[in-house]
Design goal:
The structure is a single chain. With 155 residues, the chain is mainly α. It has six helices and two strands. The chain has one domain. A two-stranded antiparallel sheet has the order 1-2.
């Protein structure tokens, strides 16, 4: 019983060790937090915690998908494997959350940028889960540049 339980914790994702898994999850938390911190500073509805949770969840779903793809039990031809569905599911889930931050009052629309930031946090989480940390970092930095630059030029 102990051996079976221990085996469940030896490798978090088939083909990936704990070091890689932890790095990807932590990167998602940090990069989602970068965008969330900026939204928090602007006192927006979805801030630091929301963006971190979105990026972390997206990363986790992606790691689970990688685990399923690398699992020898999934080599059966009767099992249909389509990794793009994970990206679609993350996109749909985050879009649902982001839509809740957007509201209109007459001709005034609020929350679009925050919703877009949440969507981007999901994409960054997926990129981290897939191991594209450079791409995820670049996207987060570009998001900050856009958010800061537009605010500065709009003032």
């Amino acid at each position: 019983m102990y051996e079976m339980l221990r085996a469940q914790f030896e490798t978090p994702v088939p083909g990936l060790g704990w070091d890689v898994t932890i790095l990807r999850l932590v990167a998602a938390v940090i990069l989602g937090g970068v965008i969330g911190y900026e939204r928090e500073r602007q006192r927006k509805q979805a801030g630091l915690r929301t963006h971190i949770m979105i990026a972390l969840a997206a990363c986790l779903f992606t790691l689970i998908m990688l685990g399923l793809l690398m699992n020898p039990l999934a080599d059966d031809d009767s099992i249909r494997k389509d990794p793009i569905r994970v990206i679609e599911a993350v996109t749909a889930g985050v879009a649902f959350l982001a839509a809740g931050t957007i509201f209109t009052s007459g001709n005034d629309v609020k929350g679009l940028t925050t919703g877009a930031g949440m969507w981007l946090a999901g994409a960054i989480g997926v990129a981290c889960g897939l191991g594209h940390l450079g791409l995820a970092t670049l996207a987060a930095l570009l998001a900050l540049v856009v958010l800061w630059l537009v605010r500065i030029t709009a003032e």
